[in-house]
Amino acid sequence: MDMANSSEFSTIDAQFYQRADEFFPAHRNLALTYDDLSLATLYSEVLPRDTQLDTTLAEGLNLNIPVISSDMDTVTEASMATAMALNGALGLIHYNMPEKQQLSEVSRVKNHVHGLIQDPIKVWPDQLIGDVLRVIDERRFAFSTFPVVDASGKLLGLLSSHVVKPRYAKRKVGEALTPRSQVHTIPHKELGSNPIARADKFFNDHPGIHKLLVVDADDQLRGLFTMSDIERINQERGAQFKPARDAHFRLICGAAVSATRNAFGELDRERILTHAGALVERGLDVIAVSTAHGHSKGVGQTVKMIRDAFPKLPIIAGNVTSASAVEYLADCGANAIKVGQGPGSICTTRVVAGVGIPQLTALYVTSRAAAKKGVTIIADGGITKSGDIVKALTLAQAVLCGGLFAGSPEAPGQIMEINGKLYKQYRGMGSLAAMKAGSAARYGHATAGASKVAPEGIEALKEASGSIDAVLTQLIGGIQSGMGYLGAANLAQLREKARYIRVSPAGMREAAAHDIVEIKTGN
Ligand code: XMP
């Protein structure tokens, strides 16, 4: 068969499998979401593993994979944002915390030295070994060697795993530690421009030593290298998706802010700009003006204010589901628009307020306005599987996920055990508990009266999952597979080539595993 012909789209196919600009207008009376449609396979010369997933959300904001973690208080703080950036993605630090704390979360990501654990778990000399064992058990640590510090953070020694045993439970840490004089350390300022290579050399030069502590000039503990981390990093050097970094080789990080109002109900201009300025000073790469109703005067004015004060700072704004909202926020100065009202797994906006648009129709409508305005869109909420991401990326430049990441160890909060299963808390930012903790402003309610307002989100649990590395590996595999089926070598081709067809309820059932006795899930 002639190669050129085999890649052409048959006129028969074209009657059934339609381009976005035919398919969505043809379904203008029916709002559609992920499970309502499927993508047609197309002639392919592209192997999944060769597909490129990089995306540009704004000038100066490039991701190596098109995934963002939600600005929610059970999803993204520094360790999630760090893990996302290390995988080539982005995390948006939530704002349900004091502004000062948000600044230090951003700093932790920006100052992250790959391989250096900056805030290692420490123990104190008057603790009992039994207490340490209990903490290891409760918090499920996979390690049992700890730096010992005094109340000011000064290094006193190392508690080695050889002594963290029930036999020594009644002894104090101070009696059992390896003293400071025998602990291997390196001054922070000697780490140089390639800390990994420096630590790697140290472990080569000191056979049998697996931990290297980093201290400052006052002998305050500044971090910890472990040999196994360094070995893993060296193995990962050849990875296809590189960490997402800024021009100074620091990991990228985003943070969300709200349209904060003062006691008189007016936008608190000074507070918003002072905080935005402090975030920029810490090296923030993108600010997200994040609210449930982005097509509103307060959000528009906030975006405009930040745009005027920081002309080069990439701004994400949302959430919206209409073309006019995209135009409005783009005109105010936003670069990337967050799309989604009510699709989230913990959202009840559509139930409570009767408002919102199923996600794929919302993405189509907004994507067409965004293209005209030269801005990008981010598909926010409702994504439960990699196939949803592929569908979202046929219209949007990136996806934003909460629930998919909330069960991982990098999400804030402790693991809890219920009937032998492990869970983590996951709650909507419009839930009563989150609003009480401060996000009421985002939903247009006053914090003080949170118990009197109608919540638009629920409190839930997610089953504990693997690490973000493991979760993203699965998701990326799925995205690449989808691109391979469509013959799309990169995300622009995916958007260009996608052909859609509506799926019946029976078709939807057919798509998932069925008529079998499941003995092992995909996870
Ligand atoms: P997923 O489906 O990824 O959704 O868990 C995460 C997204 O949901 C939005 N969000 C909310 N929406 N009420 C809502 O209507 C809420 O309480 C709420 N909390 C978060 C948000 O856009 C997030 O990224």
Notes on the protein architecture:
The protein has 19 helices and 22 strands. It is α/β, with parallel strands linked by helices and 523 residues long. The strands form 6 sheets. It has an 8-stranded parallel barrel, surrounded by 7 helices. Strands 6-12-11-10 form a 4-stranded mixed sheet. Strands 7-8-9 form a 3-stranded antiparallel sheet. Strand 15 (315-320), helix 12 and strand 16 (336-339) form a beta-alpha-beta unit. The chain binds xanthosine-5'-monophosphate. Xanthosine-5'-monophosphate (XMP) is lined by residues 70, 72, 319, 340, 342, 344-347, 349, 380-383, 400-403, 428-431, 456-457.
Number of helices: 19
Structural class label: alpha/beta
Question: What strand line-up does the widest sheet have?
Answer: 4-5-13-14-15-16-17-18
Cα(first) to Cα(last) distance is 40 Å
Q: Taking all residues together, what is the mean pLDDT? A: 91
Bound molecules: xanthosine-5'-monophosphate
Descriptive key words:
single chain, 523 residues, alpha/beta, 8-stranded parallel β-barrel, 4-stranded mixed β-sheet, binds xanthosine-5'-monophosphate
